[in-house]
Amino acid sequence: MGGQKMEKKGTLFVISAPSGAGKTTLTGQVLKQFPQLSYSISHTTRKPRQGEIHGRDYFFIEDQEFQTRIAQDQWIEWAQVHGNFYGTDKAFVSEKLEKGENLLLDIDVQGAKQIMNSDLGLVSIFILPPSIEVLEQRLESRGTDSPSVIAHRMENARWEMDQQGAYNHVIVNDDLGQAIVELCSILKTKMRSL
Fold first, then answer.
1. What is the pTM of this model?
2. Nearest to 93 by CA among 186, 11, 178
3. Which of 17, 120, 126, 148 could potentially form a cystine with 164 if both were Cys, beta carbons 3.0 to 4.6 Å apart?
């Protein structure tokens, strides 16, 4: 009996994508359409980008605090990406799921794989760009990263795209409207109603 999941437990959705694939835009759109879906805000040690707000986009914390929380096993997943730490608070996720709430995590492939190896029974979704060339164009058009940072992100993107087979669902974000329809369809099918 101890290994059975509670019937009322919420559904955990994990969405990953290479930087520039449109994951943030997609998640923003579906969260508007599903008020019964909570969003888990990640913690990071990177500096805020223009327009980002602490507690809305990320919880911005110092390296030392992040590493202390690693030592205290407070992350359900964490990774170092592009020289910065990112993590998801274990207590927050557990509390939401135990209450029967549906929760969406927007995390990188390293973090997703950590959660896939847990007993949380998640639904994993990978967002692909139409092509590697389009991805590079999107990163360049952002105007937020230097050419060396873009080159590093592209190297990581190739590796991340190779990991798509580990996910339950893959959506190609070629047409934003169609990608939203596909993502909403997955959420409707898998989401627990409160």
1. 0.84
2. 11
3. 126
pLDDT at 120: 81
Domain ranges (residues) in the chain: 12-190
Strand-strand pairing, 123-128 and 75-81: unpaired
Superfamily of domain 12-190: P-loop containing nucleotide triphosphate hydrolases (3.40.50.300)
Beta strands 102-106 and 59-60 are: unpaired
Residue whose C-alpha is closest to residue 9's, from 103, 97, 96: 97
Cα–Cα distance for residue pair 74/92, rounded to 1 Å: 10
Query: What are the structure tokens assigned to 187, written together?
Result: 């959420």
pLDDT (tens digit, 9 = 90+) per residue, 111-126?
Answer: 899 999 888 889 999 9
Band (139; pLDDT cuts 50, 70, 90): confident
Residue 101 vs residues 42, 119, 171, 190, 194: alpha-carbon distances, Å: 18, 17, 24, 13, 7
Tokens of 35: 């008020």
Read off the pLDDT of residues 10-67 as tens digits, 9 standing for 90 and up: 999 999 998 888 888 899 999 999 988 999 999 999 999 889 999 988 999 999 999 9
